[in-house]
Amino acid sequence: MAEKNIVDWIALVLVIVGGLNWMFFAFGYNLVDALLGKGSILAQLVYLLVGAAAVYMIYFAVSK
Questions:
Q1: Which of 8, 39, 53, 63 could disulfide-pair with 14, CB 3.0 to 4.6 Å?
Q2: Range of the domain at 21
């Protein structure tokens, strides 16, 4: 198994955060919006980072 670097771990945490948010969203609760404010710049940044982490995880999955 390949060693994971800090970017791998950050991407993994962000993808987990995104997955948990989707789980809560299925029950009508948006965790990111609740914590950071609906439509706030910080919430948008989290969504952007989670999306970028998902793209990175796709790369990670097919490259190693």
A1: 53
A2: 6-63
